[in-house]
Amino acid sequence: MQLYQRDAISRAVTLDHDALAAVEAGFAALGRGEVVQPPILSMAIEEANGEVDVKTAHIRGAERFAIKVSPGFFDNPRLGLPSLNGLMMVFSARTGLVEAVLFDEGYLTMIRTALAGAIAARHLARENSHRVAVLGAGEQAERQVEALRLVRDIRVVDVWARRREAAEAYSETLRGRGLEVQVHDDIPTACERADIIVTATPSREPLLRARDLPDGVHVTAMGADSPDKRELDTTVLTRADAFVCDTRAQSEVNGELKAFAGRETPFKVHELGQVIAAREMLRLSEATITVCDLTGTGVQDTAIADYALTRLSG
Fold first, then answer.
1. What digits encode the pLDDT tens for the residues 237-288?
2. What is the pLDDT of residue 168?
3. Beta-carbon-side half-sphere exposure of residue 231 (alpha carbons within 13 Å)
4. Mean pLDDT value across residues 39-53
5. Domain 2-108+299-313 - what CATH class?
6. Which contacts (CB < 8 Å, 24+ apart) does range 33-41 have?
7. Domain layout of the chain by residue ranges
8. Mean pLDDT, the chain, as a whole number?
9. Is 314 exposed, middle or buried (0-12, 13-18, 19+ CB in 10 A)?
10. Domain 116-296: CATH superfamily, name plus number
């Protein structure tokens, strides 16, 4: 058994086309029905403002599978500690023996989450998209733009965040990467010229509304990954010409579909893996509005862990 630390993992795995292909292949396998993926195991540790999620999946025929343990303790910054942490355990799919422990401290989760946003845009956004509006100014907001540049010629970024100082700091980081960036005081203005909108916040109430959506926009919603979080108003989902999620079951519990809890959705729900595997064309015109809700899946974790271990041991 091998033990790898974050430094080695981050040198081996970056936001690049090879990593994107590995995660996209995992989604496609899920869409073809080739994945065993149990529900998320989630546990709250309320007295410490913490939570722990465990995700896993097995891609049939693959040599390995991973189990990821992902703690989030949100008072940690007051102690000078990161709020997110975690590790991935990689097992042989033939013998069940542990092959490696990837003590990545949440790095691989950040990578596969950013790549999922790029994969959604690759299949749903207009090919000539060059302007993205980002709601949020944290690490995932930054990484989403970086990953998007793998699949679209992103040149302009419009930023909104609850704290203006966070938005300004974020914008300086993006300008340092050669992007034109504008900071906005409200969401409608930030989104009015967007080709792609990315929501990457911990919001517990809807931020984006149908009236904020320009014709032809693609929306990727990243923030709602637990029952108490929401970023999209119900009108966004009903206005969309195509609604896609990573898995319907997770979106109904943790994602944006929980807005329709206990009742049928008035629109068809597509899953991203099936869109990829079947090469579905959901964008029918330049005016088509698409929405993708990503809650994070075990197959992404197995795909990125297998890719990381291949790079590390090769």
1. 999 999 999 999 999 999 999 999 878 999 999 999 999 999 999 999 999 9
2. 95
3. 27
4. 92
5. alpha beta
6. 34/59, 34/60, 34/61, 35/59, 35/60, 35/299, 36/60, 37/247, 37/297, 37/298, 37/299, 38/298, 39/249, 39/250, 40/250, 40/254, 40/298
7. 2-108+299-313, 116-296
8. 95
9. exposed
10. NAD(P)-binding Rossmann-like Domain (3.40.50.720)
CA distance to 39, 69, 304, per residue, from 102 (Å): 22, 11, 11
Count how many residues are written for the chain: 314
- Rounded to the nearest 10 degrees, how much is the dihedral formed by the CA atoms of 245, 246, 252, 255? -80
* H or E element at residue 118: helix 107-124
Mean pLDDT of 152-166: 96
φ, ψ for residue 159, nearest 5 deg: -120, 135
Q: Whole-angstrom Cα distance, residue 126 to residue 222?
A: 19
pLDDT of residue 123: 98
By CB neighbour count within 10 A (0-12 exposed, 13-18 middle, 19+ buried), where does 61 fall? exposed
Whether 216 and 289 have beta carbons less than 8 Å apart is answered as yes
Q: Do the domains 116-296 and 2-108+299-313 match in fold?
A: no
- Within 8 A by CB and 6+ apart from 267, the residues are 237, 238, 240, 243
> DSSP letter at 297?
-
Q: How many CB atoms lie within 10 A of CB 269?
A: 16
Q: What is the 3-state secondary structure (H, E, C) of 201-270?
A: CCCCCCCECHHHCCCCCEEEECCCCCCCCCCECHHHHHHCCEEEECCHHHHHHCCHHHHHCCCCCCCCEE
Contact 221, 292 (CB under 8 A): yes
